[in-house]
């Protein structure tokens, strides 16, 4: 598996699957979630609503992942995962690692060969960039996956630098 880091907007990536840092409602939010829904159009939200009505009546639990269409995006699928809100009192890093592991598991089920990830939990959910990057890199390196092109697409300099350090 090749791991690369890029700076920019994840919605423009030509990959099989784009991962969304969603919230458990699956009904949209700010940050990368808002950008993905805006760029991908209403088909993504329509499928998210169906998932809420069928499989996830109480929302998608933190650390889990589920795929929908990517609508108008170049990608074929959006894989929605729910990162943990950062806590200084409680170690939630296993849940953050689970987001990457579960997203890669879903990607494998879909047969996706290329996947782009944002820095899950590193925005509104408050995770410090250095720690978020290290957990992400360790989690994908530890995953047994058939994905051969894995990209972290980072939106700002601080997070990009953190992922560069974590990759070593
Ligand atoms: P969370 O609620 O999981 O923290 P956010 O969307 O607030 O999710 O932030 C996650 C990361 O995604 C942050 O580093 C943020 O800067 C970044 N981000 C925001 N918009 C985009 C985008 N269009 N492409 C890639 N990353 C983005």
From TrEMBL:
Residues 1-168 form the Macro domain. SMART domains: A1pp. InterPro entries: Macro_dom, Macro_dom-like. It comes from the Bacteria. PANTHER family: GANGLIOSIDE INDUCED DIFFERENTIATION ASSOCIATED PROTEIN 2-RELATED, MACRO DOMAIN-CONTAINING PROTEIN. NCBIfam families: PRK00431.1-6. This is O-acetyl-ADP-ribose deacetylase. It comes from Glycomyces endophyticus.
